[in-house]
Amino acid sequence: MREESSLWFNQAGEDFKSIDSLLRDKRYHGAVLFAQQAIEKILKAYIIERNQTLPLKTHRIDTSCQKNLYMDKTKIDKQLKTF
To answer: Where is the HEPN domain (predicted)?
Structure first.
């Protein structure tokens, strides 16, 4: 694993620890925010490993997938709307 992707992945791991603590305290709003951050960090780590480049800076998961992974935005939108 590349150093940059390892850093993002480790930071996501720290976010998961925070999520666990927040859920135990029934602080769901904070847990959801940390979950989104963790997902973004894992996605960035994956993009670095796959593309061997740093991903575009964005907090939109759909945009990140489209621009960095060359995925069809209409398919991404459909999948995200199922949640």
So the answer is: 9-83
